[in-house]
């Protein structure tokens, strides 16, 4: 079963965390995952994926313009209705709006008929209510949470589609 992690990354932080999510996904048997920059998506892979996770750096307490533009049009060609959807963010500051960016992504996913998921508190700690956020000066400290998020998303995707 295929899963796709999409991202936009200017400094490399969001790309790095996307790759960590893929690592977590790949710990679950029966799932394949790839990460792509939003500017270079493997269209066939994304269309076949049962789950799409979208990540953005946080600018002005929201997603970057590249992600916002993708959500408002080009994303429609990826057969989104019925897929599992998830989101993550990177940010400069703890109160810089990472969760607001995640919420914007999840809102769009809901509008497109996706089944949004994060695991919430159902698995215990770490609790990931909306999606994980990594701060630029604490990427290493966030990697375990991002790996676990990938694993939880893969487990749920298998549960729903197997």
TrEMBL record:
UniProt GO MF annotations: electron transfer activity; FMN binding; oxidoreductase activity, acting on NAD(P)H
InterPro entries the UniProt entry points to: Flavodoxin/NO_synth (IPR008254), Flavodoxin_CS (IPR001226), Flavoprotein-like_sf (IPR029039)
Residue stretches making up the Flavodoxin-like domain: 3-154
Pfam families: Flavodoxin_1
Name under which the protein is recorded: NAD(P)H dehydrogenase (Quinone)
Species annotation: Desulfitobacterium chlororespirans DSM 11544
